[in-house]
Amino acid sequence: MTSGTHPSELAFFSVIASSPGLAAAARSLGVTPPAVSKRLAQMEARLGVPLVIRTTRRMRLTPEGEIYLAHARRILAEIDDMEQLLADSVAAPKGMLRVNASPGFGRSYIAPLVSRFMLTHPEVQIQLQLSVDPPAFSSDTFDVCIRFGEPPDARIIARRLATNRRLLCASPAYLARHTVPSTPKDLEKHHCIGIQQGDEAYGVWRLTTERGGSKTTELVRVHGTLSTNDGETAVNWALDGHGILMRAEWDISRYLNSGRLVQVLHEYQTPDADIYATYLQKHQLSTRVRAFVDFVALSFQS
């Protein structure tokens, strides 16, 4: 857009292009035909190109006018979108909000928070979908996704809701029948319960230890007779004594506290599993997205 062009000129030219002639455009604009002709001539003189070919019977755009019109309409639409976003940012949250979470965490934590959120924001409609495999970070299928682990894509806004660790554990009955592992290599001799979820490499566990200020990570290919894509099922198998499980702390803490599961290889760290609310940058001004993410974050902190 040439320096000096004002949005009012874009709107003016859009009206001209949509009218059969300058007289009709003048009626739409509420001015006289000479005023329209004068303003159009001033625009053409400043731009240095003709925008409209005028005849006694009709008016048509020049190729330069067609280009000007296409850009004018796009810019005006973007201005309208911006103003709507700004208006929405200060308005009360309302409209459809699409939320995605994993089945176990979604049922236990997110669904109850959705219920509480609706008590204070009745004009919001929420669709909560629980899926084993999370959507791609760049997907626009959902407005907010509750995920484990920080997204690698800088275009995604990620707000950490809570810290979370993955722990290795097994039932006392299983450990009584087998030697308690003391190194990651020992896991190769054990029955390990596999969970196939997301993009993580199935059957490969990464364990990190820190000594003397340096970290060492070992990749262990584990084996077992049981695997699933459902975390709750895997936890139940571990409780039944079928093997060693790697699972998020939020999912097994009550069993560790009660003694039904026992943590092993305490000194080794597994990949981070902090809990994040993620959403695309274009949703950052959405009142309902911000209100929901703020509500969930505050709930995890309390």
Task: Give the helices and strands, then pairings.
Elements: H1 7-17, H2 22-29, H3 33-47, E1 52-54, E2 59-61, H4 63-90, E3 95-101, H5 103-120, E4 124-130, E5 144-148, E6 156-162, E7 166-170, H6 172-177, E8 194-195, E9 204-211, E10 214-221, E11 227-228, H7 231-239, E12 245-248, H8 249-258, E13 262-263, E14 275-280, H9 287-301
Parallel strand pairs: 3-4, 3-5, 8-11
Antiparallel strand pairs: 1-2, 5-14, 6-14, 7-12, 7-13, 9-10
Helix pairs in contact: 1-2, 1-4, 2-3, 5-9
Give structural notes.
With 302 residues, the protein is an alpha/beta fold. It is 40% helix and 23% strand. It has 9 helices and 14 strands. The protein has helices at 7-17, 22-29, 33-47, 63-90, 103-120, 172-177, 231-239, 249-258, 287-301, and strands at 52-54, 59-61, 95-101, 124-130, 144-148, 156-162, 166-170, 194-195, 204-211, 214-221, 227-228, 245-248, 262-263, 275-280. It has a 5-stranded mixed beta sheet, with helices on one face. Strands 12-7-13 form a 3-stranded antiparallel beta sheet. A two-stranded antiparallel sheet has the order 1-2. Helix 1 packs across helix 2 (22-29) and helix 5 (103-120) packs across helix 9. The longest helix has 28 residues, at 63-90. The protein is elongated. It starts with 6 loop residues before the first helix and ends with a helix.
Strand content: 15-25%
The DSSP helix count reads 9
Strand line-up of the largest beta sheet: 4-3-5-14-6
Number of separate strands: 14
Largest sheet: 5 strands, mixed
Query: What separation lies between the terminal Cα atoms?
Result: 51 Å
Order of helices and strands: HHHEEHEHEEEEHEEEEHEHEEH
Q: List low-pLDDT spans.
A: none
> What does the overall shape look like?
elongated
Helix content: 25-40%
Mean pLDDT reading: 86
Structural class: alpha/beta
What is the radius of gyration computed over CA atoms, rounded to a whole number of angstroms? 30 Å
